[in-house]
Known about the structure:
Layout: H1 5-8, H2 12-29, H3 37-66
Helix pairs in contact: 2-3
Amino acid sequence: VRQGTLDDYVYLEHGAHYAIGALAVILLITIQHEISELITGTVGVFLIAASFLSSVRRNKRLAAEGGAGPDDKKAKVPSGV
């Protein structure tokens, strides 16, 4: 956080929140049904990996459009952290 990683990968924080929400839903489902730990872990990893890859694609697209990459202050969206 101190190095500005969340500012460089703007969708990463959202992906973490989605993963927490999905894990909460899975937890509620496990009250009635057995769900494998493999599925639970895979869902969280998939959501965070997808948000990371989306951030990388966004940074590449911005760099190709006009040089506004992750190091450019104008391209950053502050994470609020």
